[in-house]
Amino acid sequence: MLPLNCLGMRCPLPIIESAKALKSLVTGDQISLQSDDPATWVDLSAWARMSGNEVLQIDKTNFLITKKR
Predict the structure, then answer these.
(1) Cα 25 to the center of its chain, rounded Å
(2) Among the CATH numbers 3.30.110.40, 3.30.70.920, 3.20.20.10, 2.60.40.1180, which is that of 2-66?
């Protein structure tokens, strides 16, 4: 699991950083994203639908992204 700290970053940077990090991973790998931007969950959910990846919200600032493609 790859940790990705995006605390303090505002939209769209957490999504951009997550997408860049996923490029180096293989299908099934995961990113543990930390982000305190209030828009992160909404943005990640939309991005996951468009990209075909999976996102789970663990708590207010922690998200688990699984590469599906």
Answers:
(1) 13
(2) 3.30.110.40
pLDDT tens sequence across 10-49: 989 999 999 999 999 999 999 999 999 999 999 999 999 9
Half-sphere exposure of 15 (CA within 13 A, CB side): 19
pTM over 0.85: yes
Domain residue spans of the chain: 2-66
Length of the chain: 69
Tell me 23's DSSP state: H
